[in-house]
Amino acid sequence: DDDIYGYFKYLNDNQPLAIALYNTATAGIVLNHGLVNRLADLEKVVAIKNGIGNPADSIAMRKMCGDRIVVTEPNEAFYLWDAAAHGAQAVYGTLEVIMFGNQRDKMFKVMELAQQGKVDEALPIYKELEPLRDLLGEVFMAPLFGRNVYNLAPIKYWMELLGYKMGVCRPPLAARADEKDKARIREVLLQVGAITEADVAAAA
Predict the structure, then answer these.
(1) On the CB side of 138, how many CA atoms lie within 13 Å of its CA?
(2) What is the pTM of this model?
(3) Which of 25, 66, 82, 196 is the most buried (most CB within 10 A)?
């Protein structure tokens, strides 16, 4: 703990930028609450993305140090309840703001209504995004939390369907998504209207 604290204390004291912490098991160490509480006292530490896959941990952390830093639970699917019931201020999350494509305005609307405590009004819009959430969970989040693997090849294909030029992944990751994942991604994005058949053809 002292080594990690010392590292961020050095950054705090020797550069002008704000610091946002990222708590994730894929980094090889999870920051405990006592350490986060100490780091929250550093002037330039302003936020933490608590990406350990446990919303209850983020809620507890926010109660402990949310008066000093913004504590974000990066799971967009949880934000409606987190904001309305637990005072969440932001989603410092994964890829939804890009991956939802032309449906992203619905996500922003849900966030706006959640901040206002209008859960009943937000819920129908929230549910419209479920197929996209489920797909992101299937091709990216499940490998991340199940195997500590950033499964980026399917994400790159998804983004190509949205019009971004992505290229291949570097080793040791798979260079390209397999055909099963590609078919699943196309199916869901077409189903919800996030892309058209022309987008599929352009990404071929």
Answers:
(1) 13
(2) 0.86
(3) 82
Please name the residues in contact with 13: beta carbons below 8 A apart, sequence gap of 6 or more: none
Cα–Cα distance, 124 to 145 (Å, whole number): 28
Q: Does residue 131 have a cis bond before it (omega within 30 degrees)?
A: no
Q: Give the amino acid at 105.
A: D
Q: How far apart are CA 72 and CA 57, in angstroms?
A: 11
Q: ω into residue 74 within 30 of 0, thus cis? A: no
Q: Which residues contact 7 (CB under 8 A, 6 or more apart)?
A: none
pLDDT in tens, the chain (204 residues): 999 999 999 999 999 999 999 999 888 899 999 999 999 999 999 999 999 989 999 999 999 999 999 999 998 999 999 999 999 999 887 788 889 999 999 999 999 999 999 999 999 999 999 999 999 999 988 887 778 778 899 999 999 999 999 999 999 999 999 999 999 999 999 999 999 999 999 998
| Segments making up each domain of the chain, as ranges | 2-74, 95-204
